[in-house]
Automatic annotation (TrEMBL):
Family per similarity comment: Belongs to the glycosyl hydrolase 88 family.
UniProt name for this protein: Glucuronyl hydrolase
Active-site residue numbers: D115 (nucleophile), D175 (proton donor)
Record keywords: Hydrolase
A Pfam cross-reference name: Glyco_hydro_88
Protein backbone atom coordinates (compact mmCIF):
# COMPACT_ATOMS: atom_id res chain seq x y z
CA UNK A 1 0.00 0.00 0.00
CA UNK A 2 1.34 3.40 -0.94
CA UNK A 3 1.61 5.98 1.78
CA UNK A 4 0.97 9.64 1.20
CA UNK A 5 3.33 12.21 2.62
CA UNK A 6 2.41 15.60 4.01
CA UNK A 7 4.96 17.88 2.41
CA UNK A 8 6.40 20.97 4.05
CA UNK A 9 5.74 23.99 1.79
CA UNK A 10 9.46 24.66 1.29
CA UNK A 11 9.88 21.40 -0.60
CA UNK A 12 7.37 22.39 -3.28
CA UNK A 13 9.97 24.14 -5.50
CA UNK A 14 12.12 21.01 -5.42
CA UNK A 15 9.13 18.94 -6.45
CA UNK A 16 8.47 21.26 -9.36
CA UNK A 17 12.11 21.02 -10.43
CA UNK A 18 12.34 17.26 -10.12
CA UNK A 19 8.80 16.69 -11.40
CA UNK A 20 8.23 14.08 -8.75
CA UNK A 21 4.71 12.76 -8.34
CA UNK A 22 3.64 12.22 -4.75
CA UNK A 23 3.48 8.45 -5.29
CA UNK A 24 7.11 8.63 -6.44
CA UNK A 25 7.90 10.26 -3.13
CA UNK A 26 6.55 7.21 -1.32
CA UNK A 27 8.73 4.85 -3.36
CA UNK A 28 11.64 7.20 -2.92
CA UNK A 29 11.38 7.28 0.82
CA UNK A 30 11.10 3.51 0.92
CA UNK A 31 14.21 2.89 -1.20
CA UNK A 32 16.29 5.34 0.78
CA UNK A 33 14.72 4.00 3.97
CA UNK A 34 15.85 0.51 2.97
CA UNK A 35 19.38 1.82 2.63
CA UNK A 36 19.21 3.17 6.20
CA UNK A 37 17.88 -0.15 7.54
CA UNK A 38 20.61 -2.08 5.73
CA UNK A 39 23.22 0.33 7.07
CA UNK A 40 22.14 -0.39 10.65
CA UNK A 41 22.63 -4.14 10.12
CA UNK A 42 26.07 -3.51 8.65
CA UNK A 43 27.07 -1.27 11.57
CA UNK A 44 25.91 -3.91 14.05
CA UNK A 45 28.49 -6.17 12.44
CA UNK A 46 31.09 -3.40 12.42
CA UNK A 47 30.48 -2.78 16.12
CA UNK A 48 31.36 -6.42 16.86
CA UNK A 49 34.61 -5.97 14.91
CA UNK A 50 35.65 -2.95 16.98
CA UNK A 51 37.23 -3.07 20.45
CA UNK A 52 34.99 -1.19 22.93
CA UNK A 53 37.52 1.63 23.36
CA UNK A 54 38.06 2.28 19.64
CA UNK A 55 36.37 3.84 16.62
CA UNK A 56 36.12 2.80 12.98
CA UNK A 57 38.91 3.68 10.56
CA UNK A 58 38.79 1.40 7.51
CA UNK A 59 38.28 -2.12 6.32
CA UNK A 60 40.66 -3.74 3.86
CA UNK A 61 38.50 -6.38 2.18
CA UNK A 62 36.85 -7.28 5.48
CA UNK A 63 39.87 -6.75 7.77
CA UNK A 64 38.72 -3.96 10.07
CA UNK A 65 41.19 -1.39 11.32
CA UNK A 66 40.09 0.53 14.41
CA UNK A 67 41.45 3.91 15.50
CA UNK A 68 41.75 5.89 18.70
CA UNK A 69 39.66 8.98 19.48
CA UNK A 70 42.42 11.34 18.30
CA UNK A 71 42.33 10.14 14.69
CA UNK A 72 40.90 12.60 12.17
CA UNK A 73 38.35 9.95 11.17
CA UNK A 74 37.18 9.13 14.72
CA UNK A 75 33.93 11.12 14.55
CA UNK A 76 32.51 9.60 11.38
CA UNK A 77 31.27 6.32 12.90
CA UNK A 78 29.31 7.92 15.78
CA UNK A 79 28.20 10.69 13.42
CA UNK A 80 26.82 8.11 10.97
CA UNK A 81 24.97 6.39 13.81
CA UNK A 82 23.36 9.69 14.88
CA UNK A 83 22.24 10.34 11.29
CA UNK A 84 20.72 6.86 11.21
CA UNK A 85 18.99 7.49 14.54
CA UNK A 86 17.49 10.72 13.22
CA UNK A 87 16.11 8.83 10.22
CA UNK A 88 14.95 5.59 11.86
CA UNK A 89 14.69 6.15 15.63
CA UNK A 90 16.40 2.78 16.03
CA UNK A 91 17.48 2.76 19.68
CA UNK A 92 20.65 0.70 19.08
CA UNK A 93 22.08 3.42 16.82
CA UNK A 94 21.68 6.02 19.56
CA UNK A 95 23.09 3.77 22.30
CA UNK A 96 26.06 2.68 20.18
CA UNK A 97 26.66 6.25 19.02
CA UNK A 98 26.67 7.53 22.61
CA UNK A 99 29.06 4.75 23.74
CA UNK A 100 31.53 5.59 20.97
CA UNK A 101 31.27 9.39 21.04
CA UNK A 102 32.03 9.41 24.78
CA UNK A 103 35.53 8.17 23.90
CA UNK A 104 36.10 11.43 22.01
CA UNK A 105 35.23 13.85 24.80
CA UNK A 106 38.87 14.66 25.74
CA UNK A 107 39.53 15.75 22.14
CA UNK A 108 37.64 19.02 22.73
CA UNK A 109 40.93 20.36 24.16
CA UNK A 110 43.12 19.06 21.35
CA UNK A 111 44.93 21.99 19.73
CA UNK A 112 47.31 19.72 17.80
CA UNK A 113 45.03 19.12 14.82
CA UNK A 114 43.02 21.15 12.33
CA UNK A 115 40.74 18.15 11.93
CA UNK A 116 38.77 19.00 15.04
CA UNK A 117 35.89 20.17 12.85
CA UNK A 118 35.63 16.77 11.17
CA UNK A 119 36.12 14.99 14.46
CA UNK A 120 33.79 16.92 16.72
CA UNK A 121 31.20 18.53 14.44
CA UNK A 122 30.42 15.32 12.54
CA UNK A 123 30.00 13.46 15.84
CA UNK A 124 28.93 15.79 18.67
CA UNK A 125 27.42 18.19 16.12
CA UNK A 126 25.12 15.44 14.83
CA UNK A 127 24.33 14.41 18.41
CA UNK A 128 23.38 18.01 19.22
CA UNK A 129 20.95 18.03 16.28
CA UNK A 130 19.04 15.05 17.71
CA UNK A 131 19.57 15.66 21.46
CA UNK A 132 20.42 19.31 22.09
CA UNK A 133 21.76 19.91 25.57
CA UNK A 134 24.15 22.11 27.52
CA UNK A 135 26.86 19.45 27.98
CA UNK A 136 27.09 18.64 24.26
CA UNK A 137 27.00 22.34 23.39
CA UNK A 138 29.94 22.95 25.73
CA UNK A 139 32.00 20.19 24.10
CA UNK A 140 31.39 21.81 20.70
CA UNK A 141 32.21 25.33 21.90
CA UNK A 142 35.41 24.10 23.56
CA UNK A 143 36.32 22.30 20.33
CA UNK A 144 35.80 25.50 18.32
CA UNK A 145 37.97 27.39 20.81
CA UNK A 146 40.74 24.78 20.44
CA UNK A 147 40.52 24.90 16.64
CA UNK A 148 40.66 28.71 16.65
CA UNK A 149 44.03 28.56 18.42
CA UNK A 150 45.52 27.32 15.14
CA UNK A 151 44.50 30.50 13.30
CA UNK A 152 47.32 32.81 12.23
CA UNK A 153 46.25 36.37 11.29
CA UNK A 154 49.41 37.00 9.23
CA UNK A 155 48.49 34.08 6.97
CA UNK A 156 44.74 34.44 7.30
CA UNK A 157 44.29 30.69 7.77
CA UNK A 158 44.00 27.91 10.30
CA UNK A 159 47.18 25.82 10.27
CA UNK A 160 46.54 22.32 8.94
CA UNK A 161 49.58 20.24 9.76
CA UNK A 162 52.38 20.82 12.22
CA UNK A 163 52.84 22.47 15.57
CA UNK A 164 51.39 25.91 16.31
CA UNK A 165 54.91 26.93 17.36
CA UNK A 166 56.54 26.11 13.98
CA UNK A 167 57.94 29.41 12.68
CA UNK A 168 59.34 28.08 9.39
CA UNK A 169 56.41 26.63 7.45
CA UNK A 170 52.64 26.95 7.73
CA UNK A 171 50.79 24.30 5.71
CA UNK A 172 47.15 24.58 4.73
CA UNK A 173 45.29 21.83 2.90
CA UNK A 174 42.06 22.23 0.94
CA UNK A 175 40.42 19.71 3.32
CA UNK A 176 40.58 22.37 6.03
CA UNK A 177 37.55 24.11 4.48
CA UNK A 178 35.46 21.39 6.09
CA UNK A 179 36.52 22.35 9.61
CA UNK A 180 34.94 25.80 9.25
CA UNK A 181 31.42 24.44 9.80
CA UNK A 182 32.23 23.95 13.49
CA UNK A 183 33.27 27.60 13.75
CA UNK A 184 30.14 28.89 12.02
CA UNK A 185 28.07 26.78 14.40
CA UNK A 186 29.95 28.07 17.45
CA UNK A 187 29.50 31.70 16.34
CA UNK A 188 25.73 31.17 16.26
CA UNK A 189 25.64 29.16 19.50
CA UNK A 190 27.68 31.65 21.53
CA UNK A 191 27.22 34.99 19.74
CA UNK A 192 31.01 35.24 19.62
CA UNK A 193 31.77 36.87 16.26
CA UNK A 194 35.43 35.82 16.37
CA UNK A 195 34.59 32.26 15.31
CA UNK A 196 32.74 33.62 12.27
CA UNK A 197 35.52 36.04 11.35
CA UNK A 198 38.17 33.29 11.47
CA UNK A 199 36.06 31.02 9.26
CA UNK A 200 35.45 33.79 6.70
CA UNK A 201 39.09 34.83 6.62
CA UNK A 202 40.22 31.22 6.12
CA UNK A 203 37.70 30.74 3.30
CA UNK A 204 38.79 33.97 1.59
CA UNK A 205 42.51 33.14 1.77
CA UNK A 206 41.85 29.62 0.49
CA UNK A 207 39.76 30.96 -2.38
CA UNK A 208 42.61 33.26 -3.34
CA UNK A 209 45.54 30.85 -3.01
CA UNK A 210 44.37 27.27 -3.45
CA UNK A 211 42.66 27.53 -6.84
CA UNK A 212 43.95 27.41 -10.39
CA UNK A 213 42.31 29.29 -13.28
CA UNK A 214 40.22 26.20 -14.14
CA UNK A 215 38.92 26.08 -10.52
CA UNK A 216 40.69 22.84 -9.68
CA UNK A 217 42.59 23.14 -6.41
CA UNK A 218 46.05 22.42 -5.09
CA UNK A 219 46.10 20.07 -2.16
CA UNK A 220 48.64 21.95 -0.02
CA UNK A 221 49.68 25.60 0.12
CA UNK A 222 52.74 26.33 2.25
CA UNK A 223 52.91 29.84 3.72
CA UNK A 224 55.52 31.79 5.61
CA UNK A 225 53.94 31.95 9.08
CA UNK A 226 55.45 35.39 9.82
CA UNK A 227 54.59 37.23 6.60
CA UNK A 228 51.82 35.12 5.07
CA UNK A 229 53.76 34.91 1.79
CA UNK A 230 53.19 31.76 -0.24
CA UNK A 231 56.32 29.54 -0.28
CA UNK A 232 55.01 26.73 -2.49
CA UNK A 233 51.94 24.91 -3.74
CA UNK A 234 52.08 21.14 -3.81
CA UNK A 235 50.34 17.85 -3.15
CA UNK A 236 50.51 15.17 -0.49
CA UNK A 237 47.74 12.79 -1.49
CA UNK A 238 47.35 13.66 -5.17
CA UNK A 239 49.13 12.34 -8.26
CA UNK A 240 51.31 15.44 -8.67
CA UNK A 241 51.58 19.05 -7.51
CA UNK A 242 49.68 20.14 -10.63
CA UNK A 243 46.98 17.46 -10.51
CA UNK A 244 43.41 17.55 -9.21
CA UNK A 245 43.22 15.11 -6.30
CA UNK A 246 39.62 13.91 -6.37
CA UNK A 247 38.80 14.16 -2.68
CA UNK A 248 40.39 17.60 -2.54
CA UNK A 249 37.96 18.78 -5.24
CA UNK A 250 35.14 17.26 -3.19
CA UNK A 251 36.21 19.03 0.01
CA UNK A 252 36.36 22.34 -1.87
CA UNK A 253 32.91 21.86 -3.40
CA UNK A 254 31.37 20.95 -0.05
CA UNK A 255 33.29 23.64 1.85
CA UNK A 256 32.32 26.59 -0.33
CA UNK A 257 28.69 25.41 -0.58
CA UNK A 258 28.59 25.32 3.22
CA UNK A 259 30.24 28.78 3.42
CA UNK A 260 27.48 30.17 1.20
CA UNK A 261 24.83 28.58 3.46
CA UNK A 262 26.42 30.18 6.53
CA UNK A 263 27.22 33.65 5.15
CA UNK A 264 24.94 34.15 2.12
CA UNK A 265 27.98 35.74 0.44
CA UNK A 266 27.47 35.04 -3.25
CA UNK A 267 31.18 34.81 -4.03
CA UNK A 268 31.19 31.45 -2.21
CA UNK A 269 28.20 30.29 -4.24
CA UNK A 270 29.99 31.23 -7.47
CA UNK A 271 33.11 29.40 -6.28
CA UNK A 272 31.12 26.25 -5.51
CA UNK A 273 29.46 26.42 -8.93
CA UNK A 274 32.83 26.75 -10.66
CA UNK A 275 34.17 23.74 -8.74
CA UNK A 276 31.04 21.76 -9.63
CA UNK A 277 31.56 22.65 -13.27
CA UNK A 278 35.21 21.51 -13.14
CA UNK A 279 34.09 18.16 -11.70
CA UNK A 280 31.00 17.49 -13.76
CA UNK A 281 32.48 18.57 -17.12
CA UNK A 282 35.80 16.84 -16.57
CA UNK A 283 36.60 14.41 -19.42
CA UNK A 284 38.10 12.05 -16.85
CA UNK A 285 34.91 11.78 -14.78
CA UNK A 286 33.75 8.23 -15.53
CA UNK A 287 30.27 7.38 -16.82
CA UNK A 288 29.08 6.22 -13.39
CA UNK A 289 30.26 9.59 -11.99
CA UNK A 290 32.46 8.08 -9.27
CA UNK A 291 35.85 9.73 -9.80
CA UNK A 292 39.21 8.12 -10.10
CA UNK A 293 41.31 8.91 -7.02
CA UNK A 294 42.81 11.84 -8.96
CA UNK A 295 41.37 13.49 -12.07
CA UNK A 296 44.89 13.32 -13.53
CA UNK A 297 45.86 9.92 -12.16
CA UNK A 298 48.35 8.03 -14.27
CA UNK A 299 46.85 5.00 -15.96
CA UNK A 300 43.24 6.22 -16.26
CA UNK A 301 41.01 4.24 -16.89
CA UNK A 302 43.03 1.44 -15.28
CA UNK A 303 43.36 2.90 -11.84
CA UNK A 304 41.42 3.06 -8.58
CA UNK A 305 38.18 4.90 -8.02
CA UNK A 306 37.52 6.86 -4.85
CA UNK A 307 34.00 6.19 -3.58
CA UNK A 308 34.59 8.61 -0.69
CA UNK A 309 35.07 11.49 -3.16
CA UNK A 310 31.86 10.44 -4.95
CA UNK A 311 29.87 10.40 -1.69
CA UNK A 312 31.16 13.82 -0.58
CA UNK A 313 30.44 15.31 -4.03
CA UNK A 314 26.91 13.86 -4.05
CA UNK A 315 26.13 15.33 -0.65
CA UNK A 316 27.53 18.74 -1.62
CA UNK A 317 25.71 18.81 -4.98
CA UNK A 318 22.36 18.11 -3.32
CA UNK A 319 22.84 21.11 -1.05
CA UNK A 320 24.16 23.27 -3.91
CA UNK A 321 21.10 22.38 -6.00
CA UNK A 322 18.91 24.21 -3.49
CA UNK A 323 20.73 27.55 -4.03
CA UNK A 324 20.64 27.88 -7.83
CA UNK A 325 18.17 28.37 -10.67
CA UNK A 326 15.88 25.60 -11.86
CA UNK A 327 18.05 24.39 -14.75
CA UNK A 328 21.30 24.21 -12.77
CA UNK A 329 19.46 22.72 -9.83
CA UNK A 330 18.28 19.84 -12.01
CA UNK A 331 21.84 19.36 -13.34
CA UNK A 332 23.30 19.14 -9.84
CA UNK A 333 20.53 16.93 -8.47
CA UNK A 334 20.69 14.55 -11.40
CA UNK A 335 24.46 14.25 -11.09
CA UNK A 336 24.16 13.58 -7.36
CA UNK A 337 21.51 10.94 -8.00
CA UNK A 338 23.70 9.24 -10.59
CA UNK A 339 26.51 9.16 -8.05
CA UNK A 340 24.22 7.75 -5.36
CA UNK A 341 22.72 5.17 -7.71
CA UNK A 342 26.24 4.02 -8.57
CA UNK A 343 27.28 3.89 -4.92
CA UNK A 344 24.16 1.97 -3.87
CA UNK A 345 24.69 -0.63 -6.61
CA UNK A 346 26.76 -3.81 -6.39
CA UNK A 347 29.88 -2.20 -7.88
CA UNK A 348 30.42 -0.12 -4.74
CA UNK A 349 28.04 -1.22 -1.98
CA UNK A 350 29.15 -4.28 -0.07
CA UNK A 351 26.84 -7.29 0.16
CA UNK A 352 25.16 -7.67 3.57
CA UNK A 353 27.51 -9.19 6.12
CA UNK A 354 30.64 -8.36 4.07
CA UNK A 355 33.25 -5.59 4.16
CA UNK A 356 33.73 -5.93 7.95
CA UNK A 357 30.46 -4.03 8.41
CA UNK A 358 31.39 -0.94 6.38
CA UNK A 359 28.90 0.09 3.69
CA UNK A 360 30.92 1.14 0.65
CA UNK A 361 33.90 -0.48 -1.02
CA UNK A 362 36.56 1.10 -3.26
CA UNK A 363 37.85 4.25 -1.63
CA UNK A 364 41.40 5.56 -1.47
CA UNK A 365 43.11 7.15 1.53
CA UNK A 366 46.49 8.06 0.05
CA UNK A 367 47.70 6.54 -3.20
CA UNK A 368 51.19 8.12 -3.11
CA UNK A 369 51.76 6.70 0.38
CA UNK A 370 50.26 3.36 -0.66
CA UNK A 371 48.04 3.67 2.42
CA UNK A 372 44.36 2.66 2.47
CA UNK A 373 44.15 2.02 -1.26
CA UNK A 374 40.94 0.38 -2.55
CA UNK A 375 39.47 -0.02 0.93
CA UNK A 376 36.28 0.87 2.79
CA UNK A 377 36.59 4.18 4.64
CA UNK A 378 34.47 5.49 7.50
CA UNK A 379 34.05 8.88 5.86
CA UNK A 380 32.84 7.37 2.59
CA UNK A 381 30.02 5.77 4.60
CA UNK A 382 29.34 8.97 6.56
CA UNK A 383 28.89 11.19 3.49
CA UNK A 384 26.94 8.44 1.69
CA UNK A 385 24.41 8.37 4.53
CA UNK A 386 24.37 12.17 4.67
CA UNK A 387 23.77 12.41 0.91
CA UNK A 388 20.89 9.91 1.10
CA UNK A 389 19.37 11.89 3.96
CA UNK A 390 19.74 15.16 2.02
CA UNK A 391 18.17 13.60 -1.07
CA UNK A 392 15.26 12.31 1.01
CA UNK A 393 14.83 15.69 2.74
CA UNK A 394 14.79 17.37 -0.71
CA UNK A 395 12.00 15.05 -1.83
CA UNK A 396 14.25 13.23 -4.28
CA UNK A 397 14.48 9.51 -4.87
CA UNK A 398 17.10 6.98 -5.83
N1 LIG B 1 41.66 15.02 5.36
C1 LIG B 1 42.35 13.94 4.83
C2 LIG B 1 41.77 13.30 3.64
O1 LIG B 1 40.84 13.72 3.00
O2 LIG B 1 42.33 12.27 3.32
Amino acid sequence: MKRLFLLPFYLLPVLLITGLPVTGMAQSADKIGNEFTAAISQFQLLSKNLPPDKLAQYSDHGQVKACGPGSWVAGFYPGSLFYLYSETKNSWTLEEGLRRVKLMEPEQYNTGTHDLGFMMYCSYGNLYKIKPGEAVKQVLVNSATSLSKRFNPAVGCIRSWGKISDTTEFRVIIDNMMNLELLFWAAKATGNRQFYDIAVKHANTTMQQHFRPDYSSYHVVVYNPKTGAVIKKQTAQGASDASAWARGQAWGLYGFTMCYRETKDRKYLRQAQHIASFILNNPNLPKDKIPYWDFNAPGIPNTDRDASAGAIMASALIELSSYVDKKLSATYLNAAKEMLNSLSGPAYKAAPGQNGGFLLMHSVGSHPANAEVDVALSYADYYYIEALKRLKDAGGRL
